Amino acid sequence: MNFKALWSFFCLILFSNNSCDLVSTIRLYDRNREQCLTIWNAGAIKYLIIGEEQSLAGAYVKLDVGHLSLEQQNFFVCWQRAPKPLEMVVPKAKILENKLDSTPSRIYTPLNHLRLTSEILKFHQEGCFEFCFESSTIFPSDHALLEY
């Protein structure tokens, strides 16, 4: 085997092994495990996928959070409860792709959406939560279930 072929093989193995470690999957469930939000965390790019999807075939949002520090990447969710849709707020993120059906779900990313304390407290009420990427915690902790 020549050097060029060996080097190409080595690079292929190196990159394929590293790419597996670069994407992590987090699943958030409501208390009854009736609703799920899957997060594919690929560093600067995050996918918020409705359901326990293994692919991007369903409803999802692709976000760019590369310009944000880890502590600024928190997001806020209120589970879908008739007649209210699933509501997600990812302050300061850039939406790269939105494949959500706007009837059962909504996503917001405006810079000023969560300026007031009352707006933040809405997501700490029953059926809602805040997820912190920096510490991988949910607040309030009993408002959602977390799985890796």
Oligomer: single chain
Q: Which geometry do the CA atoms define?
A: globular
Count of helix runs: 2
Report strand %.
35-45%
| Arrangement of strands in the largest sheet | 7-4-3-2-1-11
Total number of beta strands: 11
Structural class assignment: alpha+beta
Helix-strand topology string: HEEEEEEEEHEEE
Largest sheet: 6 strands, antiparallel
Overall pLDDT: 80
State the low-pLDDT regions, or none.
Answer: 5-21
What is the secondary structure topology, with strand pairs?
Elements: H1 3-22, E1 24-29, E2 36-42, E3 45-50, E4 60-64, E5 75-78, E6 86-89, E7 94-98, E8 105-108, H2 117-122, E9 128-132, E10 137-139, E11 145-147
Parallel strand pairs: 6-8
Antiparallel strand pairs: 1-2, 1-11, 2-3, 3-4, 4-7, 5-6, 5-9, 9-10
Characteristic terms for this protein:
alpha+beta; six-stranded antiparallel beta sheet; five-stranded mixed beta sheet; 11 strands; 18% helix
Descriptive report:
The chain is α+β, with helices and mostly antiparallel strands. It is 18% helix and 35% strand. It has 2 helices and 11 strands, in the order αββββββββαβββ. Strand 5 (75-78) and strand 6 (86-89) form a beta hairpin. The longest helix is centred in the first third of the chain and has 20 residues, at 3-22. 20% of the residues are buried. Mean pLDDT is 80; it is low at 5-21.
Short description:
The chain has 148 residues and is of the alpha+beta class. The chain is built from two helices and eleven strands, in the order αββββββββαβββ.
